[in-house]
Amino acid sequence: MRNEERLAREILEQLGGAGNIADVASCMTRLRVKPTDYSKVDIAGIKKIDGVLGVVEEETLQIILGPGIVTKVANEVSEITGKTASLVDESDPDPFEGLAGRTKDDLNKKNATPFKLFLRRIASIFIPLIPAIVASGLIAGITNVIIRSGADPESTFIQFLNLIGWGIFSYLGVFVGINTAREFGGSPALGGAAGILIINPGLANITLFGEALVPGRGGLIGVMLAAVFIAMLEKRIRKFVPSSLDIIITPTLSLLITGIATLFVLQPVGGLISDLITKGLLGLLDVGGILAGLVLAGTFLPLVVTGLHQGLTPVHMELINTIGDDPLLPILAMGGAGQVGAAFAIYFKTKNEKLKKVIKGGLPVGMLGIGEPLIFGVTLPLGRPFITACLGAAVGGAFQAFFKIATIAIGVSGIPLAFLVHTNQILIYLLGLLIAYVFGFIFTWTFGFKEEMAKGI
Description:
By secondary structure, the protein is mostly helical. Helix content is about 65%, strand content about 5%. The chain has 3 domains: about 5-90, Glucose permease domain IIB (Gyrase A, domain 2); about 170-285; about 290-455, no CATH class. The longest helix is centred in the middle third of the chain and has 43 residues, at about 245-290. It is globular and about 75 Å long. One of its GO terms (biological process) is phosphoenolpyruvate-dependent sugar phosphotransferase system. It comes from Mesobacillus selenatarsenatis (strain DSM 18680 / JCM 14380 / FERM P-15431 / SF-1).
């Protein structure tokens, strides 16, 4: 029996059988299911299955299997149950209608705090764009490496690579506007038009109060403000417009009013918020230096566990949009590196074969910047290694802050991020990554792990 088939059948058995599955979906690392009768589910039994790295109980039951294997298992579950396995965003907390046996009110009381709802909306705007951003940024980064290696920057080949790598960043405001309007119940096309209002080069030809407007002023913050405004305005105008005239009057008035509001209010406000974010972070790193890097990297893993890290995506993009690079991402990337070092220490120290197998499966993807398998399958369940991983990350973060390492785009952390840092900083970044590995290992080996901790794994 193939491994994915075995996993699917064993998971279904602990979920109460194939007949107890109402819906199934998968994201990058997790199998998501909606049981018909939640009381038939054996969570402890699922956690004991060989190959299951952890279980998260939120709006849906999320079984962590790791990238690659999760899609295969989802397909097997789909074949056995007859339910179509949809693919959902990592940020989507509830791709189904809700879990049986739990009312929406119960779920909202537990999960839908205003801050969480805000972060989920931010994530819903940006996370669908990350594959394109990561791919483009990686191509742009590799192109920079090729140029630094001696290639002619004016050659057709390099120009072609730059076209592919940097294209999305010129029009990112349009995509953000589309997703923002969709998230707030407006027409996606109008959201894209609101984004164009912020980034349109024609702004430079308009003078207000004696000063020419600046295309891109306010950045993605301004784009989101404009897109939210036009979505809200569209819904309100539609209430008073006859249905026969809606297709003409509603979008026209929405765009016209939003255009005026953007020029006089939304873009300046977006610029102010953008300045506060970027100058605040840069000031923190300049004044705090090593200490700032240490604290930021050392506290990042808890943010990942709670999902709060999703709210940082627009911050990274705003730094790149405003100052041209992102000094925050290399620091936070050390969170995963410290965890990798901790996992290596546990692997060499433990005699628990199941734990070794989980670590062996999670380490490669952890080094490539996908940390969930190691977080939920190793360090977090063991407890103390999660703390020592944070300590190792803190040392790496201090190193990155000291040398002011910065990326030209956002992407997954770990080793692949080396292609996104400035080309003259690649070796320094990799050295910082190694330092986080080493200190995560040392802290965990010396006082972070004892064999008795593995008994419950």
